From TrEMBL:
Residues 36-491 form the Aldehyde dehydrogenase domain. It comes from Nocardioides fonticola. This is Succinic semialdehyde dehydrogenase. Belongs to the aldehyde dehydrogenase family. Keywords: Oxidoreductase. The active site is at 265. Gene3D superfamilies: Aldehyde Dehydrogenase, Chain A, domain 1 (3.40.605.10), Aldehyde Dehydrogenase, Chain A, domain 2 (3.40.309.10). InterPro entries: Ald_DH/histidinol_DH, Ald_DH_C, Ald_DH_CS_GLU, Ald_DH_N, Aldehyde_DH_dom. Pfam families: Aldedh (PF00171).
Length: 528
């Protein structure tokens, strides 16, 4: 592995991240200041950047109260007018991509390449729903039970105030992108970012307000999940959660008890099946990103690779060589291909997965160690062999730059191994014969399957719903349902003349006879 030219010190903090900006951003958090603030640190140095205010239950209730008041006015604003805000916001978000990436990097430690890619997600989501929202939200007239004299209209009503709970791995994208369709649909939003990574969502919200989003409509509360979660869920009309499967179960239970809907986007243990006709060079490039992109902290990233016996040695050698030449380091420029993990705590979790695997008989092919010389939370890109399901990293999501290589003899065996997991978020199949690869992809139990890519093609296809199955989630983001889930349906039915039931004096049996023949005739005429 070549290491980015060793810097004696961590890189200087980006010039745009001033103390004044940090103070202005955290002032947006709903907090009376009575709780001890959270020391939000710069990952590359471990130094405290700013004290993040924490929200008490009454702060959260106040945020919901303000959001609810703003939502009533927003919902009464015509959809076209609401969408104008997002047209302006689209430009502002792109114009501020570098400043946003600065904040994403200081708080998450990811490399610049990933940070800038992350800034593109909310504008992509906006673009998609700017095209679809008006149509999706327009009242749709449907037929009624009696032709000509009755009709029903499907009316989309905003849920009210949507609570969003976001993780740290894509703080800007998960803090903003899921809020965009909710806001377009006429809702208010209260978001709870992770304490470690609250800055970039706060900045994104300030840009939305600059674009004309009414003040008060998009609130931010901060705190540790178990402290903030219950009050947030109890005040919300819908919950959008992105995070681990363990937390997803807690959130889903509470939402269920409150009889509100929720969308849960959870973890994965994502497999990649490489077929024997694969183009090795293309696959290596795709696998490097799929495994090590965002330092392995992408919910859809690949943690298990199944290689065909006939090409195992060749493919392994190419992948290991490419991994060892990755450029890893701390920099606020586009140099490093790999950045830091989000925190020393998370690095210890990744290390514990590797140590556990080795103790139980796995082999480290490359990597396997922290890199304190690069920063407090750096970990080497790591390839393991001999991983089994009695090892933590054989079954539980590691969420770091660690992958296990497995050998398979038949495609049937590879499919069975890929499906042998409680998760079902993402999978990847590689091969030159597209029909064969697609047929195999359809047999994988996952909400997203990429053919000849690891994850980006599915995630960036904003017109198609993207979610997990099995323990990887409930519901989806993107596609029509990514917006419609934030609405309730009102079935507004109108009867112009009271024609149902027997006419005065008509025998009930005669009425039944005419009703049944009417049903037959409607079926023949294609009237539903
Ligand atoms: P996490 O579940 O620990 O935390 C996610 C968020 O939930 C944080 O804001 C946290 O403060 C909050 N939280 C924690 N406990 C809570 C509780 N009891 N009540 C309310 N909120 C609570 O997850 P994490 O470690 O921050 O994030 C990484 C996980 O997120 C990984 O499992 C990853 O796969 C998953 N993820 C999934 C997707 C997806 O789209 N499926 C996307 C990104 C991340």
């Amino acid at each position: 592995m070549t290491v980015a030219p060793q810097k004696p010190q961590a890189p200087a903090r980006p010039a745009s991240v001033t103390d004044d900006l940090l103070r202005r951003l955290v002032a947006r958090v709903s907090s009376d200041g009575s709780r001890t603030p959270w020391p939000l640190t710069e990952v590359y140095t471990g130094e405290v950047l700013v004290e993040l205010p924490q929200s008490t239950p009454s702060d959260i209730e106040r945020a919901f109260g303000e959001a609810r008041a703003a939502q009533v006015r927003w919902a009464a604003t015509p959809v076209k007018q609401r969408l104008e805000v997002f047209k302006r916001a689209h430009t502002l978000l792109i114009d501020n991509a570098h400043r946003t990436a600065d904040l994403i990097q200081v708080e998450s430690g990811k490399n610049r390449r990933m940070a800038i890619e992350e800034t593109c997600d909310p504008p992509m989501v906006m673009s998609h729903y700017l095209k679809r929202a008006e149509k999706l939200l327009a009242p749709t007239k449907r037929g009624g039970p009696v032709p000509l004299v009755s009709h029903s209209t499907e009316i989309r009503v905003p849920k009210g105030v949507v609570g969003i709970i976001a993780p740290w791995n894509f703080p800007f994208a998960t803090g903003l992108s899921d809020a965009i369709p909710a806001l377009m649909a006429g809702n208010a939003v209260v978001v709870k970012p992770d304490n470690k990574t609250a800055l970039s969502p706060l900045f994104g919200i300030s840009l939305l307000e600059e674009a004309g989003l009414p003040k008060g409509l998009f609130q931010v509360v901060c705190g540790e999940g178990p402290d903030v979660g219950p009050t947030l869920i109890d005040n919300a009309d819908y919950i959008m959660f992105t995070g681990s499967s363990a937390t997803g179960r807690v959130i889903g239970e509470r939402a269920g008890r409150n009889l509100i809907g929720c969308c849960l986007e959870l973890g994965g243990k994502n497999p990649m099946i490489v077929l024997d006709d694969v183009d090795a060079e293309e696959w290596v490039r795709g696998a490097l990103f799929g495994v090590f992109g965002n330092t392995g902290q992408i919910c859809m990233h690949i943690e298990r690779i199944y290689l065909p016996d006939s090409r195992y040695d060749e493919l392994k050698a190419a992948f290991v060589a490419a991994t060892e030449s990755l450029n890893i380091g701390a920099a606020y420029d586009f140099g490093p291909e790999l950045g830091s993990l989000v925190s020393p705590d998370h690095m210890r979790r990744v290390q514990s997965h590797v140590d556990d695997a080795v103790a139980k008989g796995a082999t480290v092919v490359t990597g396997g160690k922290p890199r304190p010389d690069l920063g407090p939370a750096f970990f080497e890109p790591t390839i393991l062999e001999g991983v089994t399901t009695d090892m933590e990293c054989g079954v539980i999501e590691t969420f770091g730059p660690v992958v296990a290589l497995h050998r398979y003899r038949t495609v049937e065996e590879a499919i069975a191994l890929a499906n042998d997991t409680e998760y079902g978020l993402n999978a990847s199949v590689w091969g030159k014969d597209l029909d064969r690869a697609v047929a195999i992809a359809q047999r994988i139990e996952a909400g997203n399957v990429n053919v000849n890519d690891a994850l980006a093609t599915a995630f960036a296809s904003k017109g198609t719903p993207s979610g997990g199955v099995k323990a990887s989630g409930v519901g989806a983001r993107h596609g029509d349902q990514g917006l419609l889930k934030y609405t309730d349906v009102q079935n507004l039915a109108v009867l112009k003349k009271q024609v149902m039931g027997p006419r005065p004096g008509q025998e009930y049996g005669d009425y039944v006879g005419s009703m049944l023949s009417g049903l037959k005739m409607m079926r023949r005429l294609g009237i539903r």
